[in-house]
């Protein structure tokens, strides 16, 4: 389609670059006879009224990246930004056609029909490929069609997760932060969900910094008005050639890229949005990607979203006097590591981060980290660091419920690392347990420790039956990833895996969350992690000793990020839990998880059924 448009414009007297300029001008409502030269100062999202003299703004990546794995290439370039009106008309036409087809059960069950639509989703090809090795395999199973709606069967309406103690005079939607579910067309709106349109607010959006693992370009552009919004996309590219193609394929005065460094094996899996408006900054950490499927529009998948709105300081003096909370420090540390332009990062200091002091920002930075305290600041060490910074560290019994959409080659070592991190450990306790066993002074033997740990840890993942009986059926399970090879490994902790049903009947859950309830010496605590990290070593990293220096080294293969959220606060800022409930472990999981009501939606029905007590098998997406 785009090629035909360019052929019509590109006559004998007009070269290809000029044809592209004309097409962009027409799509943006500009006069094609008046070319707009795009200099380095044409795009400076750090300030609305100050130009940048950096001609390569945001089209950079950290130095000396390791070559990423090969990924499927596309034979056609994207039409990004070339004909927005026509793209919107085509999108609406497809939407109407899809709605009409939903009236026919036979059409919805036609595998050939579903296959045709699945082939349209994938990644961005040359413009925005999915974020790493294996992405094409996963995305190839995504359906676009909604399955017929089923009536909701809530026995008790979920409590809306609204911000607490919001000042009446505040003009910010979420000044103290909130966690929502993604909207679903088949579900009643009870105040605990949100649409992508409500997150982005396209009519007011000035700048959008977006990162994702999977992208749907056309869908994304339908949610953003390029005539008023500048975009920075933190994305994955196979190599330098593809970077240049992606950069050259968009209007440079509207869209720029940031390409984080990648290891040979790993994914750009973090999902983060920085949204600038006239008077505030919105920080968004979703568990889903920039595709309609993950934002509920097909009606078969649910995700979660953390949102907080930060007001803009009125004076430069206020901005300069601000001492960033740990959340802000870790956010800027992560963005710097990704290679985002320094001026844009510095511009975030214009906003008041004080309300983020009740949250932690947790991340994994792809690469090996051993210099100074770098190993302490990422991977599961970052999780432990945030737990300590929020005053949540505990040496008592800890209940941990993990919700994930993908499971890697999990073993006891990874479970211990996460368990100790949720107690506030730096990462060294698991390392010493792994390397020295019971001989390590003050460290419980690894084998005996796991018996206790497994009685207090549950990992929620759907069975083959759960996926098959969902609204989207097996075709909806393409991003729910686990393999029989890992399940059958003798090192896999089968006892902790639990089958579950979503609280929204018939939906699958792509959310990534950890619900933690701990009892310390002087306080009883509860908090949750919500973010992009699944249960895998690629996501959370592994701590080893560097052979050259003998110092600890944290290695992560993926880029990930998430937020720590305190449970609903009781007296003295602590959440009171019943000690007996904690000691009962799984038997009291329903009652102990109630502390998150109003703060973090619980996506699964409780209690789940352990696979070790059932004939059911986990969902293996490659066998589906």
Automatic annotation (TrEMBL):
Which molecular function GO terms apply here?
Answer: 3'-tyrosyl-DNA phosphodiesterase activity; double-stranded DNA binding; single-stranded DNA binding
Q: Gene Ontology cellular component?
A: nucleus
Ranges where the PLD phosphodiesterase domain occurs: 505-539
Bias type Basic and acidic residues, positions: 31-42, 82-93
Q: Which GO terms describe its biological process?
A: DNA repair
Q: Which residues fall in a compositionally biased region of kind Pro residues?
A: 62-72
InterPro entries to which the protein is assigned, alphabetical: PLipase_D/transphosphatidylase, Tdp1
Catalytic positions? 269 (nucleophile), 510 (proton donor/acceptor)
Residue positions annotated to bind substrate are 271, 512
Entry-linked SUPFAM superfamilies = Phospholipase D/nuclease
PROSITE patterns cross-referenced by the UniProt entry: PLD
- In this chain, the stretch annotated as Disordered covers 28-115, 135-164
Q: Which Pfam families match?
A: Tyr-DNA_phospho
Instruction: Indicate the annotated site residue(s) for Interaction with DNA.
Output: 536
Q: What is this protein called?
A: Tyrosyl-DNA phosphodiesterase-domain-containing protein
């Amino acid at each position: 389609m785009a090629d035909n448009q360019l052929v019509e414009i590109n006559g004998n007297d007009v070269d290809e670059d000029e044809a592209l300029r004309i097409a962009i001008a027409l799509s943006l409502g500009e006069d094609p006879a008046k070319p707009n030269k795009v200099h380095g100062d044409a795009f400076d999202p750090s300030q609305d009224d100050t130009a940048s003299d950096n001609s390569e703004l945001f089209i950079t990546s950290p130095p000396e990246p390791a070559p990423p794995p090969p990924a499927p290439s596309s034979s056609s370039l994207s039409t990004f930004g070339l004909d927005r009106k026509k793209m919107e008309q085509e999108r609406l036409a497809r939407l109407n056609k899809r709605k009409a087809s939903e009236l026919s059960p036979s059409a919805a069950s036609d595998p050939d029909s579903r296959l045709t639509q699945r082939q349209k989703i994938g990644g961005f090809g040359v413009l925005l490929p999915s974020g790493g090795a294996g992405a094409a395999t996963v995305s190839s199973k995504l359906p676009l069609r909604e399955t017929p709606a089923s009536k909701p069967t809530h026995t008790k309406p979920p409590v809306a997760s609204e911000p607490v103690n919001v000042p009446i005079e505040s003009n910010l939607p979420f000044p103290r932060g909130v966690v929502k579910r993604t909207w679903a067309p088949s579900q009643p709106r009870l105040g605990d969900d949100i649409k992508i349109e409500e997150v982005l607010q396209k009519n007011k959006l000035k700048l959008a910094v977006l990162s994702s693992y999977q992208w749907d370009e056309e869908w994304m552009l339908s949610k953003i008005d390029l005539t008023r919004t500048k975009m920075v996309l933190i994305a994955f590219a196979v190599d330098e050639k593809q970077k240049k193609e992606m950069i050259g394929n968009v209007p440079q005065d509207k869209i720029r890229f940031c390409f984080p460094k990648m290891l040979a094996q790993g994914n750009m899996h973090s999902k983060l949005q920085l949204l600038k408006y006239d008077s505030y900054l919105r920080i968004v950490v979703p568990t889903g990607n920039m595709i309609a499927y993950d934002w509920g529009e097909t009606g078969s998948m649910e995700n979660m979203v953390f949102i907080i709105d930060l007001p803009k300081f009125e004076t430069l003096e206020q901005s300069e006097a601000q001492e960033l909370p740990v959340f802000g420090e870790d956010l800027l540390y992560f963005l710097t590591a990704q290679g985002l332009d320094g001026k844009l990062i510095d511009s975030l200091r214009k906003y008041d981060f004080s309300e983020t002091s009740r949250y932690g920002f947790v991340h994994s930075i792809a690469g090996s980290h051993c210099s100074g305290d770098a190993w302490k600041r990422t991977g599961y060490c970052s999780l432990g660091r945030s737990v300590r910074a929020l005053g949540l560290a505990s040496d008592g019994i800890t209940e941990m419920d993990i919700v994930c959409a993908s499971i890697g080659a999990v073993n006891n070592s990874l479970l211990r690392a996460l368990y100790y991190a949720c107690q506030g450990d730096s990462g060294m306790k698991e390392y010493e347990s792994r390397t020295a066993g019971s001989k390590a002074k003050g460290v419980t033997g690894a084998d005996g420790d796991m018996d206790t740990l497994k009685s207090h840890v549950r990992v929620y993942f759907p069975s083959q039956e759960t996926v098959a009986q969902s609204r989207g059926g097996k075709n909806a399970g393409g991003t729910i990833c686990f393999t029989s090879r890992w399940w059958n490994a003798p090192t896999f902790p089968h006892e902790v895996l639990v089958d579950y049903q979503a609280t929204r009947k018939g939906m699958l859950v792509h959310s990534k969350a950890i619900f933690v309830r701990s009892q310390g010496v002087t306080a009883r605590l509860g908090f949750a992690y919500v973010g992009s990290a699944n249960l895998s070593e690629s996501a959370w990293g592994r701590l080893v000793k560097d052979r050259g220096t003998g110092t600890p080294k944290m290695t992560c293969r993926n880029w990930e990020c998430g937020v720590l959220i305190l449970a609903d606060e009781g007296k003295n800022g602590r959440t009171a839990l019943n000690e007996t409930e904690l000691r009962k472990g799984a038997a009291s999981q329903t009652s102990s998880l109630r502390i998150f009501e109003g703060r973090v939606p619980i996506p699964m029905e409780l209690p789940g059924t352990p696979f070790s007590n059932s004939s059911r098998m986990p969902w293996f997406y490659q066998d589906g």
